[in-house]
Design goal:
The chain is an alpha/beta fold and 685 residues long. It contains 25 helices and 24 strands. Strand 14, helix 13 and strand 15 form a beta-alpha-beta unit. The longest helix is centred in the middle third of the chain and has 52 residues. The radius of gyration is 46 Å and the shape is elongated.
């Protein structure tokens, strides 16, 4: 008995085989990139979709085959064939999801999967329950088994290779699906060629209430397309989610990298900052212990940078720092560390063969930094003061190495600058003294060791006291009364100047309140602001709260800001100064004549006083240049309607000269030294 084929259904069976192959390859890729419970769900779903696809291809192909007798299929045997297809698919997906697929495992898997597909095919044939039974040609039967095994092996190898393919995945997967689909269809039709139906055969499934071919066709097509469609849609959705997740992960990684860069590097020069420098030094110490080598920590401070910054502004100063860091970086090796602590302070860490290597590096840096910088058509020149500490000769910890290199650098500054100094034990005593003073200064405010002395301010025309300037002193329990030159630089470098400045402001206002209550209601109080205090975001609130706390009218308080501080960031300074004057507080530009003020900016500043620096007053009587400068400052102040205050008046001649030049107020030891509150009140009376 000879059967015929419907060409349209044959083509449809091929399309189903290709679609099932594509789904299987896609599922293999999903399964290989997941783990845990998600991987098990993908395995179950992939096995069901792939198995159903192969099984439906078989039954679509069977429906394409027509016999001259009614045909049906036994439900139980049909389901067994489906189970065989799903089982073989599950095994195949599990196999290609393994980290490795060696040749012995590939061959064994191909044999088992091929036999599973062949089992599905011949069980499907048995579901017809032909009487007498179907006869199979041994050669064609063997050929179908061989094709099934080879096709299974090719499918496993292709799926394993494609699962990690990153480029042109869709095209390669499509071509692989075409090859696999042709192999699966080829196996089926080879098996069909092996089948012989004897004359007079009948289909037992028809008479045993088996599945009708029309209903089976509808069931197979609808179920298969729905399952494969759902599987592909789920895979597409998963791919999109993975793509989005990948983009988010990349964005997060980039953000973390930027945050790490910002946390560990200087934003201006991109050099390591203090935090990263500390870690690098500690790591170098550990390596030096293990490998028995020495290294140097070199502290670098630029000489003359502050003057450039004040004269030309921070933007040009920043450009100078960037160019300087590039120059020095070009002298160093990749394994060396070059860090910026802030401002114009840098640190270099490098390994040594002999201690003399540090001197060679220092001389190169000094020579390189001393070469002029051409920035914005300006030729700028700075020099470098270096301090060098060696490991393990000078210190064995990060903290000690930094402190000793810093002490050596300050020794270079004191010795004339533009050079280098190796740390010595004599500097150790000075460094320890500075460190001890810093530790004691932290406790000084809590222990009420800080005191204020008051220097009187007089009218230049011979009038009486009009107020005082508050000057801080440290009543050290062991060293006695210390002047500000001893501890103010330490306070500024450590940040303690902020709480100290707030304390001075509060105590000065409290004392002025007492003097007002004692009958001196016209007196005023002048208080110096440090650069850090002036730039603090809380300054306006602190001043306002202090005046309210002590019940003082704002015009009785004068805040003194040095010319250099006011000119560091002019626009920011103007904003702060306008805020203070709007409150009613008076502003005095201190040390006038020593900075680099622009007359345009000075005109815009809401100041009430110009304070002539003592350097111009000291030689006033004998130096015509100083007399001319003071005369010019007085004339400038008059044109801007500012009061002129001269400090450092040491002689009667200076007093008379300044009065003739037109100064309004005078301060100095000739008129009155800084004294405590009781002595001030007694002298004023």
């Amino acid at each position: 008995m000879t059967g015929t084929y419907s060409q349209s259904l044959v083509v449809f069976s091929l399309l189903v085989a290709i679609l099932a192959s594509y789904t299987a390859l896609d599922m293999a890729g999903r399964l290989a990139s997941t783990e845990g419970r998600v991987a098990r769900w993908w395995l179950a779903g992939g096995a069901a979709a792939m198995g159903l696809g192969i099984w439906s291809m078989h039954f679509v192909a069977m429906l394409a085959f027509h016999l001259p007798i009614p045909v049906g299929y036994d439900l139980a045997i049909t389901l067994y064939s489906l189970a065989a297809s799903v089982g073989a698919s599950a095994y195949a997906l599990w196999l290609v999801s393994r980290p490795e697929l060696p040749w012995p495992r590939l061959i064994a898997g191909a044999v088992l999967m091929g036999l599973g597909i062949a089992c599905m095919h011949y069980l499907g044939m048995a579901a017809m329950r032909m009487e007498p039974g179907i006869e199979y040609d041994p050669l064609w039967f063997a050929a179908s088994l061989l094709i099934a095994i080879v096709a299974a092996g090719a499918a496993l190898w292709i799926a394993f290779r494609l699962r990690t393919q990153q480029r042109r995945t869709g095209l390669l997967r499509g071509l692989a699906s075409l090859v696999m689909g042709l192999a699966i269809v080829g196996m089926h039709y080879t098996g069909m060629a092996a089948a012989n139906f004897p004359e007079g055969s009948i289909c037992g499934a028809v008479y045993a209430n088996g599945l009708d071919t029309k209903w089976l066709a509808v069931l197979v097509i609808v179920t298969t397309l729905a399952t494969l469609g759902i599987a592909l849609i789920a895979s597409l959705f998963d791919r999109q989610m993975r793509t989005r997740t990948g983009l988010l992960a990349d964005s997060l990684a980039q953000a973390n990298e930027k945050l790490l860069q910002a946390a560990l590097h200087d934003p201006l020069t991109q050099l390591p900052n203090r935090m990263l420098l500390q870690d690098r030094i500690e790591q170098t110490i550990e390596k030096a212990k293990r490998r028995n080598f020495s290294f140097a920590v070199m502290f670098c401070d630029l000489d003359g940078f502050k003057a450039i910054n004040d004269a030309y502004g921070h933007q040009l100063g920043d450009k100078l720092l960037i160019e300087m860091s590039k120059r020095v970086n070009g002298l160093l090796r990749a394994q060396d560390t070059f860090a910026r602590l802030g401002g114009d302070e840098f640190v270099i860490v490098f390994q040594l063969d002999v201690p003399e290597d540090a001197a060679v590096v220092a001389e190169r840096i000094i020579a390189t930094v001393a070469e002029p910088f051409e920035i914005d058509t300006l030729d700028l020149q700075v020099t470098a003061s270096l301090g060098i500490a060696l490991y393990p000769t000078d210190a064995t910890t990060e903290r000690e190495l930094m402190a000793h290199a810093d002490a050596a650098m300050y020794h270079t500054k004191d010795s004339g600058r533009n050079g280098y100094t190796f740390f010595t034990e004599s500097m150790h005593v000075s460094a320890n003294r500075q460190l001890k003073l810093l530790q004691e200064l932290r406790r000084a405010l809590q222990r009420d060791e800080m005191v204020l002395h008051y220097q009187p301010k007089f009218r230049a025309d011979g009038g009486g006291v009009i107020g005082a300037e508050a000057l801080v002193r440290w009543q050290h329990p062991g060293l006695g009364l210390l002047g500000p030159d001893t501890f103010i630089p330490i306070a500024e470098r450590s940040g303690l100047i902020l709480p100290l400045g707030d304390w001075v402001l509060d105590q000065a206002c409290a004392q002025l309140r007492q003097w007002h209550d004692a009958g001196h209601a016209t007196w005023s109080m002048a208080v110096n602001l440090s650069p850090l205090q002036f730039s603090s975001t809380t300054l306006l609130d602190t001043v306002k709260a202090t005046l309210e706390r002590h019940g003082l009218a704002p015009h009785h308080l004068t805040l003194e800001v040095t010319e250099t501080t006011a000119m560091q960031d002019v626009e920011a300074s103007l904003q702060i100064l306008h805020g203070l004057t709007a409150m009613g507080v008076k502003i005095s530009i201190d040390d006038f004549g020593t900075g680099y003020s622009s007359l345009l900016y000075l005109k815009r500043m809401p100041a009430t006083e110009l304070k002539i620096d003592r350097a111009f007053v000291r030689d006033l009587e004998d130096n015509a240049e100083d007399a001319a400068i003071v005369s010019s400052i007085v004339a400038l102040g008059r044109s801007l309607q500012l009061q002129i205050v001269a400090e450092g008046v040491e002689t009667a001649g200076q007093r008379d000269y300044l009065n003739e030049l037109g100064c309004d107020l005078l301060q100095g030891y000739h008129l009155g030294k800084p004294v405590d509150a009781e002595a001030f009140l007694r002298n004023a009376a």
